[in-house]
């Protein structure tokens, strides 16, 4: 089968819309699997239903879930069979019991299924960077419109409804019109789901004379809108993480063991996360202690840190996903005594569960990392 055949298949997954919106479960599971193929955790055509896969499903699910959607990775693992390209290898001794199943559960998937596997041609396409990105982009078509997804994402990181409305209006209105008039793009900007394609379009938009003039009189609102949508696409497709991991894997001065440790640290797994869990015993800010909802976050950003700093647990906070995002983007930071500082650019921070009387308990080894975060990362 051609890659276009599978692109069409990915675009036609038919997610459950019984709740009035497209449930993201199948998309999230496939994004998690593709990520594991990219990063070398899956090297043969066998997808095992394990904690690693479930953790990465949860990451994507937190970005895309709506309303009362439930974090249930076993459902897409089971129901993707209907796609025609996803197959389950059922243990021989449980064939009869599995065929009689009326509903999937976390326990019966783990008990009955050895692994899932793709059509062989599709697995080859997913291993190749040349075709993998097109397949990943195709998955986004199964969700609500990109405009709706972007609005939900922007609100989730603390942007006010007014700001989000202004950004959406600028992106699909003025900016799209300027790009059309300049002969650069005939698409509504908010219909572009490819990070690479959008990045090219956005860089060209910045050079349009009318854009530059209006951006100046609008106090940078248009460039802020462009950057915000780019951050959304990067977040959903984990572009920045992939770039960092590629650099690790291509470093000839790093041993295979060191590469494995650094890759695990970059995606919030392994010893680094375990040490943060042991130290913080829950969210550093709220004390919430359900570990599956917590992110291992670097204080001094990964891209700015050396390998020693990347592995140092003192360069880490354990945070709820929404708070982690605000910290990672520089919308909150902490004083030397651990008191929270909220950026003036973070609108409606209360909707993220953040308040001005919050704080974290710091040790002396945290101080240099947080000083860097306050001076470089924090949006003053």
UniProtKB/TrEMBL annotation:
Domain ScoMcrA-like DNA sulfur-binding: 7-100
A single GO molecular function term of this UniProt record: endonuclease activity
UniProt keywords, alphabetically: Endonuclease, Hydrolase, Nuclease
Residues of the HNH nuclease domain: 283-334
Pfam families reported for this sequence: DNA-SBD_ScoMcrA, HNH_2
Protein name as it appears in the record: HNH endonuclease
Species classification: Bacteria, Pseudomonadati, Pseudomonadota, Gammaproteobacteria, Alteromonadales
